[in-house]
Amino acid sequence: MIEVKGLTKHFANQKGIFDVSFTVERGEVFGFLGPNGAGKSTTIRHLLGFMKPTKGTARINGHDCWREASIVQKYVGYLPGEISFLEGMTGMDFLNLLAGMRRMTDFTYRNELIERLQFDVDTPIRKMSKGMKQKVGIVAAFMHDPEVIILDEPTSGLDPLMQQTFIQIVLEEKKRGKTLFMSSHSFPEIERTCDRAAIIKNGRIVAINNVHELQSMQRKLFDITLASEQEAQALAQSSLDIVEHDGVRVRIAVQGNYNAFLAELTKYKVQNVDMHVQSLEDIFMNYYDKRRDGQ
Amino acid sequence: MNAALYKNMLKVYGKTIISYSVGSALYLLLIIGIYPSIAKSKGMEQMLQQMPKQLLKAFDLHTGIGTIEQFMAGEYYSLLFLLILSVYCVLIANQLMARLIDRGAIAYLLATPNSRRTIATTQAFVLLTGVIAIVAAIIVAGIVGTRWLAADHALNHAAFLKMNMVGMLLFFAVSGYSFFFSAIVSDEKQALALSGGITFLFYSFDLAGKLTEKLEWLRHFSLFSAFRPAEIVQGQTELLPVCVLLGAVGLISYIAAIIAFSKRDLAV
After folding, report:
1. Interchain proximity B107–A78, CB inside 8 Å
2. Which CATH architecture describes the domain A219-277?
3. What is the pLDDT of residue A38?
4. Pairwise CB contact (< 8 Å): A101 & B107
């Protein structure tokens, strides 16, 4: 459904994207992960036909995203990364404008989305909070029931409850056979929705993985508080990956080997467990280091 | 041209266009309102004759104020008319493209199945609708106002309409290059500086050229010197070449803007 081949874009400052290739099958949810400035938005801008590639092609449903942009737009729903609307209108005016420009006639799904995201569409846009604007953007991306949905950092600005609702909407769209492409910083979001994910860094695709493989790469940090310092001492001597040891607290890094970790813990009187999920950027770094070690 | 976008843009900019139209019409009514008392006092004409020729020329009063059109040309069309429409063209052209590009809102419009050409053309029509509406309001104010406030003085309709027509074409050109800068630049302030700066330069060149004979050559570099209201109402100018020039500048600017916008990279 989405086919990117050797996509290259040079910017004046040596930055850009280089030889980016991937395909997203019909009905697949594809995550696009990377730190800020890695080239996520640049790639998305090519998919939307906002930028002309220096080399290579991006195609959606067989149509070239640059040359046939207005045909491609028929199939696509898009949520931009930066929320900025036209001024001087309400949320509803704005949605009506886009519906008019799409020559949309069926408004049932739009109304359903508004209902689910729970916001007042008649608020003037300049008075909206960031999260509320994001909701308007989400409705704008989904309302015409497009076959392909491209989302740039979709949950930024949403509160945790709305993030849940959003993830549900994504999963429903997936069930309905839609193809979704979403960029994100947030690993849990990708984890819960995506089948596959590509990691981009410095403009190059580093890996395209099954999300479950990525999950096993994710290191989790556990802060264990034990009953006594002796116990903490003993735990710190164990074969687990000890990051830090301070009084009764021990910080342990776990990556995939959960059973060994749990088995070790049962030997002690654990008073508290705190978990820190490793940031995505750290996973990338970890991944790079491993690859470098392997070479 | 996309009807939904056009309608919505008119709704957003309608208030602005109406206030510019009402404002310019009211100013013209004011000018018409004071004409009868000025025409009565012979002193004004005498005073004008004593003023330096160049100064009169600068404010388009060198052909005198014998008729109401001449008075309008000098008191309105050579200053306020230029000011109001310049401000409208530069500001609104900037908002219709550069602001949307700078802030990223254009992404939503481009994500609909309409080509960039369609979207840019629609925005251009919105801008032009304003120019036409403002000039139309001025024409109505001129004709109705003369009958109402200066009933003893007959307005030469043909001369008055010609003056407005050339004025409108001037701002077809000004709006054209403003729209062009607005469409090719990614920074709102930069677009504003470019179109505002050039308009200001054009106006200053024209004024300086009129004031000082030594600087007369500067007028060749100013679009504004194509519009000579005092001479138009006197029937002293050949209108066709002026109209063709202004029309061509406007048309080429708009076409260039739409083509350049269709081909450029947009970081939105």
Report:
1. yes
2. 2-Layer Sandwich (3.30)
3. 86
4. no
